[in-house]
């Protein structure tokens, strides 16, 4: 018989549950936008600089922003044989909108992706494999970028100590992740050991929260390994190229915003901007707020001002960048979700993948 939770136990569950996540999210966002960022830059000045954009500059920013919106779908097409580009775009927009608005939105975004892909005719095994592999490839690029940026930065100026630390951390994590991935995919025994260790850690955490721990991770890992090997043999290069391109386009959008807002970033070498971009992408790997709202803005503005961009120009460029990458996907994703709810993209029969194991 389960004992009733003591009042302090119930309080801990509320604090660590949905209410706690909501309070944490609102607190972090308010603290950053109302407390920290105004100490760095003047919002009024930033808005003036954005309003001063010419029609040509606005058209350029919008064009690159539109390209960014569709740049992640090819990775899904590469990871799910038989998936069409427009269906991938539909699911990506809807899941991004949820991830950007709901506390711990990444989990809900994954659920939305799974539901939509299932309605497109794909099996749960194919969907689970795609979710895992796209996440792995995306994070591998994130971890590699600080080290690459540091290598380029050494050629144009003295690297900032903070970037050096981030690059070293990213490199170490990248090596660990790649080693674990290679071991898990190529060696059955290594995959079983890693899965068992991860399950023990997850079980310990779950028990501390009075929840049952996970099970069957070794068996699931083996199924994932066997299902993924054939796909990766045929598509690892395509997946890698798609992941890199999506990050490059996102960086180009930040660079475009910086170059056009008051021209303050025109003389700043693009490698320096890449360094700031890479560090922020590394910082925001842990989803403290939905879509890294507040955290990303603070990291970008602080990084750009640290390398010589004026506070107003940095804030204006970053807020414009985040308008196109955080806010705009929300209404677009809602539209995509409504279209899907009306039956757009759904199929009646399972899709049989071509050229890869299902």
TrEMBL record:
Keyword vocabulary terms for this entry: Cell membrane, Membrane, Transmembrane, Transmembrane helix
Cellular localization per UniProt: Cell membrane
Top-level taxon of the source organism: Bacteria
Gene Ontology cellular-component annotations: plasma membrane
Pfam families recorded: LPG_synthase_TM
PANTHER family found in the cross-reference section: UPF0104 MEMBRANE PROTEIN MJ1595
Name of this protein: Lysylphosphatidylglycerol synthase TM region
Organism per entry: Blastococcus tunisiensis
């Amino acid at each position: 018989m389960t004992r009733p939770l003591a009042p302090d136990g119930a309080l801990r569950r509320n604090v660590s549950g949905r209410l706690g996540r909501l309070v944490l999210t609102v607190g972090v966002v308010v603290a950053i936008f109302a407390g920290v960022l105004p100490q760095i830059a003047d919002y009024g000045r930033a808005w003036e600089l954005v309003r001063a954009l010419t029609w040509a500059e606005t058209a350029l920013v919008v064009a690159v922003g539109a390209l960014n919106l569709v740049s992640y779908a090819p990775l899904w097409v590469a990871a799910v044989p038989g998936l069409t580009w427009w269906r991938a775009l539909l699911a990506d927009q809807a899941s991004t909108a949820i991830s950007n608005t709901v506390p711990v939105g990444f989990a809900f975004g994954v659920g939305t992706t799974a539901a939509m892909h299932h309605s497109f005719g794909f099996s749960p095994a194919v969907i689970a494999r795609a979710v895992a592999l796209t996440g792995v490839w995306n994070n591998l690029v994130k971890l590699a970028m600080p080290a690459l940026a540091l290598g380029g930065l050494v050629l144009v100026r003295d690297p900032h100590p903070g970037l050096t630390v981030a690059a070293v951390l990213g490199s170490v994590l990248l090596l660990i992740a790649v080693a674990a991935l290679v071991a898990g995919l190529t060696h059955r025994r290594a995959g079983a050991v890693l899965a068992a260790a991860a399950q023990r850690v997850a079980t310990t955490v779950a028990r501390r929260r009075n929840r049952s721990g996970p099970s069957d991770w070794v068996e699931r890992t083996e199924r994932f390994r066997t299902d993924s090997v054939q796909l990766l043999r045929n598509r690892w290069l395509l997946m890698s190229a798609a992941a890199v391109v999506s990050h490059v386009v996102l960086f180009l959008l930040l660079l475009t915003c910086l170059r056009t807002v008051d021209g303050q970033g025109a003389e700043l070498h693009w490698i320096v901007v890449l360094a700031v971009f890479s560090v922020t992408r590394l910082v925001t790997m842990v989803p403290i707020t939905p879509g890294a709202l507040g955290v990303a803005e603070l990291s970008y503005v602080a990084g750009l001002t640290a390398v010589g961009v004026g506070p107003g120009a940095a804030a204006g460029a970053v807020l414009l960048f985040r308008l196109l990458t955080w806010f705009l996907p929300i209404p677009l994703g809602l539209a995509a979700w409504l279209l899907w709810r009306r039956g757009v993209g759904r199929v009646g029969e399972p899709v049989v993948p071509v050229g890869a194991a299902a």
